[in-house]
Fold:
Amino acid sequence: MKPVSKEFRFPPGYGDNRIVLLIRDPWWIFAYWEISRAKEEAAARNIESRGQKAARSILRVYDVTDVIFNGTGAHLYFDIELKDMANNWYINVKSPDRSWLVEIGILASNNEFFPLARSNTVRTPRFGMSEMFDEKWMMQEDEYWRIFGFSGGFGAGKGSLEVRETAKRRLEEQVSSGISSVSSPMRRGRAV
Structure:
């Protein structure tokens, strides 16, 4: 009789109290978090001891561009109400080239915010091509146009199928010309 093996499963949580922020693109950031039940309950007791009620869980998103943030001093902030059992969220910040920080917490009935965890700071990239030129990566203009042509660039406006067919035809021409020069009875001016 075979022993019954337990299938490995990741635990639903690790007992951490943290939120992590990542960049998706110039307009979006991504947050994921884990807050222990004990941390939430302690915050709720603190809110009740002040004569308030815990109203809702929120993510508070701060624009901290060129600011040393210590809980105040952000350029602006906005709140996202969390629903159900969410443990991650894509956040549209609508502004490229800015620094962002997020806190997860509880908003009390008097609108006082009780943070549970603060994220790292991230900076969204600027939108568009870089204005910096690095001579190390520059190429001669004729080389640029050759690569541009191989990439299908001269077929701008064509559909992907047409570009693929053009590239296939060029590759076949190069391969067949290479094969014909190898199989030719003449080699660099000498008869074989």
